[in-house]
Amino acid sequence: MSQPVIPDTESLGWQRALSGTGSGRQHAVERLHTLLLRAARFEVARLRRTVDEDLDDLAVQAADAALRAILSRLHTYRGDTRFTTWAYKFALHEAAVKVRERRGLGIGVGKTRPIEDANLAMRHRRTIEPPAPLDPVVEWRRRRLLAAGFASGLAAHLAENCAVDLHAMLELIDRGCPPELAARILAPLDERHRPC
User: Fold this and answer.
1) Shared domain check, 67 and 15
2) 93: buried, middle or exposed (CB in 10 Å: 19+, 13-18, 0-12)?
């Protein structure tokens, strides 16, 4: 039987300060946000491989999301690693999500669509029949796959099959695996299709 893990003094300090109230908590939140922002900037730059002022906006969004996630999950910190290591993982994950979302939306960093194109798209959208509403779970899965770079048809096919482990698929993509290869690697062996 393994011994219970006792967090180091610094990690316990972070946990106490963030769980507290008043100016001590506010100061800890500000320090943590600074650390998360540094980690998110690193990850966004690594994933985008370009330098642009818009990258800083992605990093700030990722740090904000990571901070919210940490504060809501503070009670789950077990002390297996240093607190800052545990917190950095949130920032790295959120940065990867923000970059994937940016890619999925088709918005190049530093580029925006002209207003005329947006108006034309809105007029066109009104003239065609709206698509049948999708199951919210399938739609959520499809959006995540599209944001990760999957082709529309493949994303729709994988999203409808809940036998496909979406999180494992996105983990492969984060590690640099091309979407089509990730789909082949994680496709169910017995060709089972389990609707969501």
Assistant:
1) yes
2) middle
